[in-house]
């Protein structure tokens, strides 16, 4: 993820207006504390990355087990534009024009039906009174974590307008079939302090519930794509250098839809942390294909590539 943020404080009107212009033109100052907060409230799957080729694994289709589709690369562009008010407003906003695309290793190297997945996020800090008396994190955390609630409205489509099914069949139209759905998500996330273990730090976690709306949803997706998803994510720092982010999700739909489950893990290492935001990483995935129309296929793979992690990402280091 890329982060562009600006903070508003009580100053002269001219100063506030000037800061707003800086935000609009993406030149706002970036503060490490704000980035730490933002990176703990956004899913680790919403980071900018590129993976080379299709990776190692297979896919299960309605026609049986097959090799992964041949790719030159898969890319995700997910810059995060954040706006946080310091004093008067106790919450912040984040906007992400997320896009996922695959370039196929075929004639002319086509990019087939990219996933357009923009979302708007509102977040604020929350306190749980019972934690002051009962510190359930004491067995594995030195300090109590900080909690945030987030509220997201998102969209997922592929920019096509053809029939969802191949005419006269129940086969999904991969060529130009329409895929579109809108959703809301409510999540609680936490940002932790040091753990009690020297070589294992729990950085952050996130529990989210996602619900898809009938608004703008392709009619033929009624029982072929999920309506509700429950997700749990955890991010760790191993040996003070390797970040491991892992997530598990369960998806449920309407009549005739069988529950789907997914596991997604990023293992990343930043070789030049002082001069670069880029990490090398491995992506391990088990679950339904997340590339719009191809959701009917189940994938199991490991792939390798580059991940963009801001320098102020919530990686807690011991002094």
Structure report:
This protein has 319 residues and is mainly β. It has one domain: Outer membrane phospholipase (ompla), Chain C. It has three helices and 19 strands. The chain has a 19-stranded mixed beta sheet that branches. The longest helix has 12 residues. The N terminus and C terminus are likely disordered.
Summarize, please.
By secondary structure, the chain is mostly beta strands. The protein is built from 3 helices and 19 strands.
Coarse shape = globular
End-to-end Cα distance, whole Å, is 26 Å
Order of helices and strands: EEHHEEEEEEEEEHEEEEEEEE
Helix/strand/pairing class, anyone? mainly beta
Instruction: State the name of the first-level CATH class.
Output: Mainly Beta
Low-confidence stretches: 1-36, 312-319
The fold-level CATH name is Outer membrane phospholipase (ompla), Chain C
Count of alpha/pi helices:
3
* CA gyration radius, whole angstroms: 21 Å
What is the typical, i.e. mean, pLDDT? 81
Strand segment tally: 19
What is the count of structural domains? 1
* CATH fourth-tier homologous superfamily: Phospholipase A1
Largest sheet: 19 strands, mixed
- At CATH's second level, what is the architecture? Beta Barrel
Report the portion of residues in β strands.
over 45%
How much helix is in the residues? under 10%
What's the helix and strand layout?
Blueprint: E1 2-4, E2 7-8, H1 13-24, H2 32-41, E3 49-52, E4 56-61, E5 64-67, E6 71-77, E7 79-85, E8 91-96, E9 99-104, E10 115-116, E11 119-126, H3 130-133, E12 146-157, E13 180-191, E14 200-212, E15 228-238, E16 242-252, E17 260-269, E18 278-288, E19 298-308
Parallel strand pairs: 1-7, 2-7
Antiparallel strand pairs: 3-6, 3-19, 4-5, 4-19, 6-9, 7-8, 8-11, 9-10, 11-12, 12-13, 13-14, 14-15, 15-16, 16-17, 17-18, 18-19
């Amino acid at each position: 993820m890329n982060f562009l943020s600006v903070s508003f404080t009580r100053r002269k009107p001219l100063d506030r207006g000037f800061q707003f212009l800086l935000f609009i033109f993406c030149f706002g100052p970036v503060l490490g504390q704000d980035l730490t907060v933002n990176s703990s409230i956004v899913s680790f799957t919403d980071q900018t990355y590129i993976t080379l080729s299709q990776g190692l694994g297979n896919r299960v289709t309605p026609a049986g087990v097959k090799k992964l589709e041949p790719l030159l690369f898969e890319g995700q562009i997910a810059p995060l534009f954040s706006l946080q008010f310091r004093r008067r407003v106790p919450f912040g906003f984040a906007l992400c024009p997320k896009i996922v695309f695959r370039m196929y290793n075929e004639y002319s190297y086509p990019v087939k039906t990219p996933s357009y997945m923009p979302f708007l996020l509102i977040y604020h800090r929350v306190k749980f009174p019972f934690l002051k008396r009962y510190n359930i994190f004491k067995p594995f955390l030195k300090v109590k974590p900080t909690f945030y609630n987030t509220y997201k409205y998102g969209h997922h489509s592929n920019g096509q307008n053809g029939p969802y099914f191949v005419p006269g069949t129940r086969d999904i139209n991969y060529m130009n079939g329409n895929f579109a759905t809108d959703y809301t998500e409510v999540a609680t996330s936490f940002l932790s302090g040091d753990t009690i273990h020297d070589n294992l730090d729990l950085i952050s976690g996130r529990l989210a519930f996602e619900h898809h709306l009938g608004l703008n949803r392709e009619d033929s997706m009624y029982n072929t794509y999920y309506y509700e998803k429950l997700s749990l994510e955890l991010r760790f720092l191993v040996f003070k250098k390797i970040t491991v982010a892992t997530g598990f999700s369960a998806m449920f739909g309407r009549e005739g839809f069988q529950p789907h489950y997914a596991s997604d893990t990023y293992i990343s290492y930043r070789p030049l942390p002082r001069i670069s935001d880029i990490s090398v990483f491995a992506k391990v995935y088990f679950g339904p294909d997340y590339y719009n129309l191809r959701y009917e296929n189940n994938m199991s793979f490991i792939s390798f590539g580059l991940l963009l992690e801001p320098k102020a990402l919530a990686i807690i280091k011991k002094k």
